[in-house]
Amino acid sequence: xxxxxxxxxxxxxxxxxxxxxxxxxxxxxxxxxxxxxxxxxxxxxxxxxxxxxxxxxxxxxxxxxxxxxxxxxxxxxxxxxxxxxxxxxxxxxxxxxxxxxxxxxxxxxxxxxxxxxxxxxxxxxxxxxxxxxxxxxxxxxxxxxxxxxxxxxxxxxxxxxxxxxxxxxxxxxxxxxxxxxxxxxxxxxxxxxxxxxxxxxxxxxxxxxxxxxxxxxxxxxxxxxxxxxxxxxxxxxxxxxxxxxxxxxxxxxxxxxxxxxxxxxxxxxxxxxxxxxxxxxxxxxxxxxxxxxxxx
Length: 296
What we know:
The protein is α/β, with parallel strands linked by helices. Helices cover 29% and strands 29% of the residues. It has 10 helices and 16 strands. The protein has helices at 22-27, 68-74, 101-105, 118-130, 150-156, 175-184, 198-211, 244-247, 258-267, 271-281; strands at 2-11, 14-20, 33-37, 45-53, 58-64, 81-82, 84-89, 109-114, 136-141, 159-164, 171-172, 191-195, 215-218, 234-237, 240-243, 250-252.
């Protein structure tokens, strides 16, 4: 069992939990994720690692209530435990690997976070700050009530730009509008990381491709097992089939087929849609096993 040692409401329907998981905390890196399960009957929920404390054995997760399972999870409190807390899963951010440190130091980096995407951006920016690399950060939300980690991000970002779609806080507009404004003012970047809803990442990539800024995105499709077996997180990246849970979650955003990814996300909501995906995608529908016998 994995006890919850802290629970906090960060913003409207957005919660933070610190979970005692020493083995995960010991080896995780920014960009990776965990899959949690509340009890024997619960759904497996993939969540990005927002922060970690290796000495205390604590992993921080952030989630937004969007359906049955996250509504149930909201009901957990300090002293309660997760039945499963599996990780770290996925590949760490290439920016946050010691072997890439010298190359990373040469880059002018901007992060763009949309909504709950602020959570996975934070550990990357924090890690880079700890290694003497300054980054600009744009965080955006629909309105001020959905913003979180503003003060925390100010401590680790070289420059923080906060945007809201409705203008209730900071820059009035979306993250793409803020990036364009910064470029128009003379700012230059040679690397961008965008994390948030798929539609947001799609439009960031359209803009950065026009601006000539290489861009990495963190993909968040439906996931079941997190090991590449079920095939639910299947993506097309360029002309290759990839699985977000084992090949990602980070990919070259200019190669990701966002329209297909969003279409698959919608189709998975119905049994008929899942069956159609299995028919259309044949042997590549599933991941590592090729044919796990399920309808995922």
